[in-house]
Amino acid sequence: MPHRFPPRSAGTPLKSLAAGLTLIVGLSGCATSDALAEQANAGDNKNYIAGDGSVTEYAPESRSEPVDLRGTTYDGTVVDSADFTGQVTVLNIWYAACAPCRVEAPDLQALSEKHQQSGVQFIGVNIRDGAATAAAFERTFGITYPSIDDTDGAVLLAMTEYVPPQAVPSTLILDRQGRVAGRIIGLAEKSTLNALITDAVAEQ
Amino acid sequence: MAPDSQTETQPGSLNATEMLQWAWRQLTSMRTAVQLLLLLAVAAVPGSLFPQRRANPAVVTQYLEDNPDIGPWMDRFQLFDVYSSAWFSAIYLLLFISLIGCVIPRAGVYWKHMRARPPRTPRRLSRMPEHGTLSLPAQTAMTPASAVEDASGLLRRRGYRVQVQDEDTDTPSVAAERGYLKEAGNLLFHVSLIGVLISVAVGGLFGYRGQKLIIEGESFTNTEISYDFFFPGTNYDTDWLAPFSLTLNDFDVSFDRSETNYGNPVDFTAAMTTRENPEAADRIETLRVNEPIGFGGTNVYLIGNGYAPMITVRDGNGNIALQGPVPALPQDPTYNSSIVIKAPDAQPDQLGFVGFFLPTAVVDDNGVAFGSDPDPFNPQLNLNSYYGDLGLDDGTPVNVYQLDTTSLTQLNGRNTPDGGITLGAYQTYDLPEGKGSITFDGLKRYVALDIVYDPGKTGALISTSLALTGLILTLTISRRRVWVRASTHDDGRTLIEYGLLARGKDQGLSKEALSIGAALAAQWSNTLHPANQPQQEGSKQ
User: Fold this and answer.
1) Which chain A residues are closer than 8 Å to B322 by Cβ?
2) Cβ separation of A26 and B92 shorter than 8 Å?
């Protein structure tokens, strides 16, 4: 009998269906313990995704195409990635109220001065601030290299094709062909960044 | 299930294998599934009682700060991560196993039911819940075999699956059954249920979800960098971020101005310029509550909004230290909002402000300003000011919506003798001690967006729809059996017997019996003896 005439009331399948629905609502994600998830759960309202300081250096043969981006600096100068050819370029993604950005700013300025003779060009990419706020930051830390006003996200979007920056701050080192040679996610440690720049400069 | 459970509930003298079998049968019984389901529903209750990290991590952090004694204990029991907690997952996994263990054998059973031939004709049709007899006069020359053939054709036309039996005997019969779609529905329901479970798992494993606040005129690019909060799925990979971007051109809230619901929001409309990828053309789209904008599999939902006053802070040296919109967090339906303004690049001292933004400020009898309307008829900022170390310069992440005053010195405030800062639109306030000034330049609105990528969503929708379809089929279609047997009476008449049986409850069975009786009678009406009308009851032989 039980196999031929399953005794089921009308409520049973309804409840089973409810199970499915409950699961959809309740379990759209499982527990993870990676750095991103931890940040999300911290609930500190810092309002940015911080990097873990991870460093990636790309060997010349494993580099992607030269980056293709355009932006306008706060002083109105147009920056085109076509101009990057023949020089080592350092792109630093930042904004004024980002705590690690404030910590690394003096180091970035020092390195930009140090490598100036080798033709290394530092370019900031500010993703949040208006001109006056950005200028105040540059005044505080004595930053002399230009920054692109990327509050519209155009540079950020263009970069996703090559190596997506994952956190603020992020620093990308482009080789003489404009390809991404190195990437630091999070606070750029001075000696690490210096080594990445030195390596890129040493290439011919 | 139920009939077996009598023997199953005596595990006293079982060996290990039998014990495992017993446990498996218990786990995969529909009763256990339903109990687990109820348990899951109960276990989900804390998820709506306490703040959840997935919904708003900031509220959880605040809750922990407000309840230093019990908070950490609640956290230990994962009451702020209910849906990903060990205990909730345990119930979910058990339910998952239980359902699969229950559904797969059942699917097999329904598959067999669906393909089954009608069963043998019972010996006594008069024992069926619905039955009747007809007799055909001897002179009609209707043999039992041809009568059964007629009946078989009639039943087939009525949608029955038929099987003629005992053709070569004196008492041939036809067995007929209909409602196989009920089994198909059952099968569909159970298989779809597994589909739902898999879809949900896929969503949890391969999806992501994030939140972002954007002010009018601002843009959002779908990269991790751009998010305020980001929740990756278990197997999340950066490559899944579709490279779309959107700009909030304008955000409009209309409030009810009729007397009954005065001040209630009626409509939220966000005018957006969107771009599917860096190369794509701009599109103009409108985002509303429950009307998300889709980019491939990623949906953008409008989940919140508020005001962002435009602020200029000048420092002690007369330079602009901060200029731009600062989001204020609404605290009540009239959009009275808390606001924190930080100017870390003010010199010689960093400046911080904390207070309220009121869209329509009205001063009460005690001289206290309060907000009376959600629309910005008389926008006002009420602030306390501080100078010193904002705590941003050592690299530690800091809550942008809170001002940590431990390393700060208060300049003025509501409780200081000269009072706090009250700023109407376009007004400037000079800070004491020549520390600088603050100007209220204008007002913008912002929206809070929920950006969700759930690759299991389509599967879940399809599975749920199919499950529902299957359920409707199962519940609405009746499975019925009809047997018609013909025999020759001693006096030469052809005697027709029929009986009906339903599987499960079937309100329409007696109606069907009448209808079949009438149809059979009509079939042979020209040959039928006038005295013989279809009889539904009491014709036991």
Assistant:
1) 96, 132-133, 136
2) yes
Gap between the Cα atoms of B100 and B122, Å rounded: 36
Interface test with B, best of A23, A129, A141 (most B CBs within 10 A): A23
Contacts of B97 (CB under 8 A, 6+ apart): B27, B28
Q: How far apart are CA B392 and CA B343, in angstroms?
A: 10
Contacts of B75 in chain A (CB under 8 A): none
Mean pLDDT, range B221-250, rounded to an integer:
82
Test A19 with B503 for CB contact under 8 angstroms.
no
- Write the CB contacts of A88 (distance below 8 Å, at least 6 apart in sequence): A115, A118, A119, A120, A121, A173, A174, A175, A176, A197, A200, A201
CATH code for the domain in which residue A132 is found: 3.40.30.10
Q: Would you identify the CATH topology of the domain B125-179+479-523?
A: TATA-Binding Protein (3.30.310)
Pairing of strands B408-412, B421-424: unpaired
For chain A, the domain total comes to 1
Q: Is the model's pLDDT at A7 over the cut of 80? A: no
What residues are paired with A121 via a beta bridge?
A89
CA of B258 to nearest chain A CA: how many angstroms apart? 36
Domain range annotation of chain B: 2-115, 125-179+479-523, 183-204+462-477, 205-305+450-461, 308-443
Please indicate if any CB of chain A lies within 8 Å of the CB of B469: no
Confidence of residue A11 (pLDDT cuts 50, 70, 90): very low
- What average pLDDT does the segment B143-150 reach? 86
CA distance, residue A153 to nearest chain B CA (Å): 6
pLDDT in tens, B45-99: 888 888 887 766 777 877 888 888 998 898 888 888 887 788 888 888 888 888 8
User: What is the residue range of A155's domain?
Assistant: 55-202
pLDDT tens column, B467-479: 999 999 888 888 8
CA A87 to chain B, closest CA, distance in angstroms equals 26
This prediction has a pTM of 0.69
| A 57-86 residues inside an 8 A Cβ radius of B | none
Q: Which two tokens stand for residue B133?
A: 């007899």
The reply to whether A50 falls in a domain is no
